[in-house]
Amino acid sequence: MSASAPNHLRKIVHVDMDAFYASVEQRDDPALRGKPVVVAQRSARAVVTAASYEARPFGIHSAMPALRAAKLCPEAIFVPPDFARYRAVSAQIREIFFRYTPHVEPLSLDEAYLDVTEPLIPSPSATETARAIRSAIREETGLTASAGIAPNKFLAKIASDWRKPDGQFVIKPHHVDRFLVDLEVGKIPGVGQVMRSKLAEMNVTTAGDLRAVGAAVLVERFGRWGQRLSELAEGIDDRPVKSHREAVQISAEDTLREDLPLSELAPHIQRMADKTWSNYQRKAERVACTIVLKLKTSDFQILTRSYTPVAPPRSAAELAEIACALRDRVGRDPNERYRLVGVGLSGFVADHEATRQTALF
């Protein structure tokens, strides 16, 4: 695993493709260009995978129920997702990244961090390197990308969203304090609606307000997350770009054709356990110790339950058995219905560590 340069020397670029899945569809079908495109099955159970920039002014966004998107924009064109095609384009883009730096950390098919402190080609600045990368992507794929350039990953990710689509924004080291003072707390990764409400109760709406509150108060209120908030408000993020990201979780999930009660989910849990185990056997280089059951209620609440047995699961059947047993930990109304089921494996350790953990018991 290679890491990027020491923190005080880093030049980080966050590249984010513009409406990637929808843009691929528009590129490959000229009839879709300039029109509101929604990547999703048009069915009662489907959710939006992506929306083109023409669809977004109607309020359509990813993870929204497809039927709601259809109501918001009746003229929207629905296109079923084609992940094999998206993965192929993503691989093409990633190959472009590696021409400029060996330090590439993919976050998903459509975004990645790059450490361009010492680029592989002559370049006067990280800004010019980002511009060259975006130009190569446009010329070779026909797609556009936005980029953020900053001294660390946290700031680069925020910057990449600043001039979307097809733009880039740089935060220079000596501009960090000025940039952050008025930054809305909602722009900080990990600060969702619930956390924004809690911070608003403290009269905190900007990163500057977080600084004024101080680390001690934030830690007392939010624990370790409070410490992290304090650091981000100061522009501190020491994480290197890691060119090889080990699996955090391997999982499979499916939206059911109809909402079902907990008692009827076993066959679907078994099916997802089989898929997860198959992926685990193909992809994992380490041993997974924890089993995760994910459920989404009919009103879109997401529930997760996990269990770490004495010995890691050794088969798909064992994985399914434990995942089904986790239903007993849901603790909800037995008549409540669920629209999505997922099974995952996490808590990865080296094989010898898993053996040692089992021996301890």
Automatic annotation (TrEMBL):
InterPro entries: DNA/RNA_pol_sf (IPR043502), DNA_pol_Y-fam_lit_finger_sf (IPR036775), DNA_pol_Y-fam_little_finger (IPR017961), DNA_polymerase-Y (IPR050116), DNApol_IV (IPR022880), IMS_HHH_1 (IPR053848), Rev_trsase/Diguanyl_cyclase (IPR043128), UmuC (IPR001126). Keywords: Cytoplasm, DNA damage, DNA repair, DNA replication, DNA-binding, DNA-directed DNA polymerase, Magnesium, Metal-binding, Mutator protein, Nucleotidyltransferase, Transferase. One of its GO terms (cellular component) is cytosol. Its cofactor is Mg(2+). GO terms for biological process: DNA repair; DNA-templated DNA replication; error-prone translesion synthesis; SOS response. The keyword Secreted does not apply. Mg(2+) binds at D16, D110. GO terms for molecular function: damaged DNA binding; DNA-directed DNA polymerase activity; magnesium ion binding. Its main location: cytoplasm. It is found in: Cytoplasm. It catalyses: DNA(n) + a 2'-deoxyribonucleoside 5'-triphosphate = DNA(n+1) + diphosphate. Binds 2 magnesium ions per subunit. The record marks Y21 as: Substrate discrimination. Its EC number is 2.7.7.7. The active site is at E111. Poorly processive, error-prone DNA polymerase involved in untargeted mutagenesis. Copies undamaged DNA at stalled replication forks, which arise in vivo from mismatched or misaligned primer ends. These misaligned primers can be extended by PolIV. Exhibits no 3'-5' exonuclease (proofreading) activity. May be involved in translesional synthesis, in conjunction with the beta clamp from PolIII. PANTHER family: DNA POLYMERASE KAPPA, DNA REPAIR POLYMERASE UMUC / TRANSFERASE FAMILY MEMBER. Belongs to the DNA polymerase type-Y family. Monomer. This is DNA polymerase IV.
